[in-house]
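Whether sequence alone determines local backbone shape is best considered at the level of individual chains. The sequence in question and its structure tokens are set out directly beneath this paragraph.

===
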Amino acid sequence: MIHKDLPLIDLHRHLDGSVRLETILDLGLKHNLPLPAKDLEGLRPFVQVTEPQPGILAFFKKFEWQVGALVDFDACKRIAYENVIDASKEGIDYIELRFSPWFMAEPHSLNPEGVVEAVVDGVQKGVNEIQNIKVNLIGILSRTYGVDIAWKELDAILSQKDKIVGLDLAGDEINFPPELFEDHFKKGRDAGFEITIHAGEAAGPESVWNAIKLLGAKRIGHALSITKDAKLVNYMIENKIGIEANLTSNYQTSTVENLSAHPLKKWLDYGLLATINTDDPGISNIDLSCEYNIAAKEAGLTAKETRLAQLNALEIAFLSKDEIAKLGK
């Protein structure tokens, strides 16, 4: 359950995995894109997960039309704006929206720097209009494109570094481990970015160790394999390394067999700074209240534990103490 006396926070949501189905259809029809269907219900199974996928890479395929509709910078600005509006409608007080400029730019050969600028502008437009939500942006390096493209993607993110708080690494964790990107993240840290890394989702504890030790991660996205290494768990507790848990997403990617098998409850019992987040709600067809009220219950969390998850989110958010004090006011 959601505790109304605490700020509602989502720390792990992909902006480019949160595109409205209606927007995909609208942009597709307007720009004569080869949509697999010309109506919402026909389009839905191509965009949203209707049953667990055989793995993470199969889940990634659902992004095809999330980013395929981003035909120009106006489309990028629109989906960033709509992300803010939708988060506000969910009752979210603070959200960190992460996005990969190269991933968003690739389908229609857009300039990645222009994508970053459009996202920043769209978010600002939404915040100015709503005024009851705090939004921060996290730039993603898509490891799947390799080391060289990651440098170009980092340059695009740095072009708006004053409007972006963090840097992330996402994509194919097995074939592109953290150690390949050590220099990229040193440059990111030197620029003032906070660091959160997708790790321990498809690979083992060593991926999480390297995300922390080599890339400087203060938070880990997914982190499912950490319980295989007691030393790692203790290290994360002692050093207050946060976890961005994504219940429904992990079930849909088949990285957990079912929600009752998810380690979130165990993490909270251990004293890890674990949180509840949505990941890709446009693909998973969920929102944050669904994760707290339905998925968390299926994962065995009590009201006390969901409250702890909300408190943890407040503690590990990429916010100053002054910004935290203003939340929910």
In short: The beta strands are 9-14, 94-99, 134-142, 166-170, 194-199, 219-222, 242-245, 274-276.
